[in-house]
Write a structure and sequence with these properties.
Blueprint: H1 9-20, H2 25-36, H3 40-51, H4 58-85, H5 90-125, H6 135-147, H7 152-175
Helix pairs in contact: 1-3, 1-5, 2-7, 4-5, 6-7
Length: about 180
């Protein structure tokens, strides 16, 4: 019998859509993607896990980076096509945007499936989430080590994203 997943890709997808449209989150994510090769879906997943008070370790994000290589290449190639089509017919560009969303959702499913076992293991050990490092900071350190350089700009962008996410959570809590 298959065990119930700890998190669902549908819940993550909906959370990501809401967070992405808040404040400066979209701009920060795209800057991190374009300038520091961060994966927007992983950044949003880090926000989602932080909201759930689940902290993961470096090894989880290292494993995830490997698992995402094929889908990241596919998305990267598709983004180039979409950006090149921006000056062409609107229906072609819009169709490519919809295709890209489908690829993004597929990648989010890979993320949730890959991370389930890490979440199960690490969640049991994380009784005091407040004392643990934000998933965004852990992911940034993995990305920086992949580039062999930790840049002040990367760290500042991650902290800005973390603050924007905290504002999102506060706004959501105030609305309740």
């Amino acid at each position: 019998m298959k065990s119930q997943p700890i998190i669902s890709s549908d819940e993550y997808w909906n959370y990501a859509l809401n967070v992405y449209g808040f404040g400066q989150i979209q701009a920060l994510c795209l800057t991190l993607q374009d300038e520091h090769r961060c994966n927007v879906n992983v950044l949003l997943f880090c926000c989602y896990l932080d909201a759930l008070k689940i902290a993961l370790k470096h090894t989880a994000f290292e494993t995830l980076n490997i698992a995402l290589q094929p889908s990241e290449l596919e998305l990267h190639q598709h983004r180039i096509l979409r950006r090149n089509a921006k000056q062409g017919p609107t229906d072609t560009y819009e169709s490519l945007k919809q295709d890209e969303l489908t690829l993004e959702r597929k990648q989010q499913k890979i993320i949730t499936e890959t991370m389930q076992s890490f979440i199960a293991i690490d969640a049991e050990k994380n009784n005091n989430f407040a004392s643990l490092q934000s998933n965004l900071l852990v992911y940034a350190s993995v990305q920086a080590s992949a580039d062999s350089v930790v840049t002040a700009k990367l760290n500042q962008l991650i902290l800005d994203l973390k603050n924007q996410h905290q504002s999102f959570i506060q706004t959501e809590n105030d609305a309740k």
